[in-house]
Write a structure and sequence with these properties.
This protein has nine helices and 36 strands. The protein is of the alpha/beta class. The protein has a 20-stranded parallel sheet that branches. Helix 6 crosses helix 9 and helix 7 crosses helix 8. It is rod-shaped.
């Protein structure tokens, strides 16, 4: 393109480019780029003119060339597919694009579209040797960044992303590599954000974001790798977040967040590896929390944040905080959609034992035995009830002594009021109601009383009850003690 073919507006940009000067077409500071209908020819640039300028890049000695345009209306297709622009940065801020820029495979130093309005952006498989800034942009079509390599940060704060039909991804970052942060606080997105297979050296920040894809996948981050934190603090998410197989070295922070997908999973982090998972200070999650086979170093969960249904089979964690009584933690295990999961009870027991709360650990084990009892046939459930009532499955051994003392008192009083007749009057020892009752209750120990006397009538029925009850108590105690030693 010859310089004589340029419009006055394009000529301003052409002359400023070689010196890296900024050209501002706005009539006043803070003008909204969305109001493109009010812009006349004096503020309009052809995409073909910008392409020619970027590719031919006029230089001046001692100056650093750069494209810095603010507040322009850019018409036509800006197609820089596979272009090599690694010698100068490009900043097209608060601009209004009539067509989607096609920048597939481009190589450039830095790109800023801050505050611009676009019908989409094609930047897949590109290489940016600096930052990519889409802050405050309003983009009404897909943003294609799949496979892109960004040596700096990707900025999306205060941006608005929408898909025309609301069905496809609004942001594609799958297999992208970002060597700094993905910085997107207050992002508004209506559609899917695809991060599967992406790698972020810094943190992913969706703080105060508004993400909406009702009853569908809103963040697809399968096998995502994040060396820092993944922040969803104070975010509002309608749809579900998928983190299957993701690796987050720092914390997955859902503090003050509202995740809502009542018809299915709200968060699915199966087989993920997470440094810290924070679920705190917010409303209860609406939908299922799926943490099957996930590995978490620190699980920071406040019981009020948990939804009505969880899936935690195979979940492993080292530390559970804040410290709560076992009665507050057990409902999480009872809500497991997989039913009775022994591993979940063992994990909770281990967490309490690591901090020295043996009482809470015993309560969890007791709850485990009671939950297991519900899975047994009727005779197993009956024997379970007996063990529970007798010794609390071995976790409440003093209960057996209480039963023993109660039965000893009943038997002693009954036989003291009416002595049973001796079998051999001349040879029988002196009758002692207390030791006679102990002879009936204790199946192993003998005081010589039971064999010397023969009760009759209801006393005989009472003796049968005491003998059977003694055997049941002894068996329950042995079973409970054995179970306790097996856990040590």
């Amino acid at each position: 393109m010859e310089i004589n073919d340029l419009t006055p507006a394009e000529l301003r940009v052409w002359r400023a480019f070689a010196r890296g000067e900024r050209v501002d077409f706005r009539t006043h500071e803070g003008e909204d780029a969305a109001d493109g209908a009010t812009w006349g020819p004096e503020r309009t640039l052809r995409a073909s003119a910008l392409k020619a300028l970027l590719l031919h890049a006029p230089q001046e000695d001692g100056e650093i060339a750069a494209m810095k345009v603010t507040g322009a209306r850019i018409t036509g297709p800006l197609d820089l597919t596979h272009a090599l622009l690694d010698s100068h940065p490009v900043r097209l801020s608060h601009c209004h694009f009539t067509e989607r820029p096609e920048l597939y495979g481009i190589q450039l130093r830095r790109l800023s579209l801050h505050g611009s309005v676009l019908p989409g952006l094609g930047l897949g498989s590109a290489r940016v040797d600096g930052t990519l800034r889409l802050s405050g942009c309003r983009i009404s079509g897909p943003v294609q960044l799949a496979g892109t390599q960004i040596s700096g940060a990707l900025f999306l704060e205060d941006a608005e992303l929408t898909a025309p039909d609301g069905s496809g991804p609004v942001l594609k970052l799958n297999q992208a590599v970002i060597n700094d942060d993905l910085w997107a606080p207050r992002l508004h997105a209506r559609g899917e954000i695809r991060l599967n297979g992406a790698s972020v050296t810094g943190s992913v920040n969706f703080r105060e974001a508004r993400l909406d894809r009702d009853q569908d996948l809103v963040i697809d981050a399968q096998t995502l790798s994040v060396e820092g934190d993944f922040l969803l603090r104070q975010a509002r998410v309608r749809g579900w977040v998928g983190l299957r197989g993701a690796r987050i070295a720092g914390r997955l922070d859902l503090s003050y967040a509202h995740l809502s997908n009542p018809s299915g999973a709200a968060l699915r982090a199966t087989s993920a590896t997470i440094g810290e998972l924070w679920l705190r200070r917010g409303p209860a999650m609406e939908g299922t929390l799926n943490l099957r086979r996930a590995q978490v170093e620190v699980l920071f969960v406040e019981p009020e944040m948990l939804p009505r249904r969880v899936l935690i089979s195979g979940l492993g964690y080292t530390s559970l905080t804040p410290h709560e009584p076992a009665e507050r933690r057990l409902p999480m295990l009872e809500r497991d959609g997989d039913g009775y999961v022994p591993h979940a009870y063992e994990q909770l027991t281990a967490a309490y034992r690591r901090i020295g709360d043996d009482h809470a650990a015993r309560l969890v084990q007791l709850a485990k035995q009671r939950r297991h009892r519900s899975t047994l046939p009727w005779y197993g459930r009956l024997w379970g009830h007996v063990q529970d009532a007798a010794v609390g499955y071995g976790f409440r051994p003093m209960r057996a002594f209480g039963w023993l003392l109660s039965l000893l008192a009943v038997g002693s009083v009954a036989y003291a009021l009416e002595h049973p007749p001796p079998l051999k009057p001349g040879e029988a020892p002196h009758f002692n109601p207390v030791f006679y009752t102990l002879d009936l209750l204790l199946p192993v120990i003998s005081f010589g009383q039971e064999a010397a006397f023969a009760p009759e009538g209801w006393h005989q029925a009472l003796s049968y009850v005491l003998v059977v009850t003694g055997w049941i108590l002894a068996t329950a105690v042995v079973a409970g003690v054995s179970r306790t030693f097996n856990r040590l």
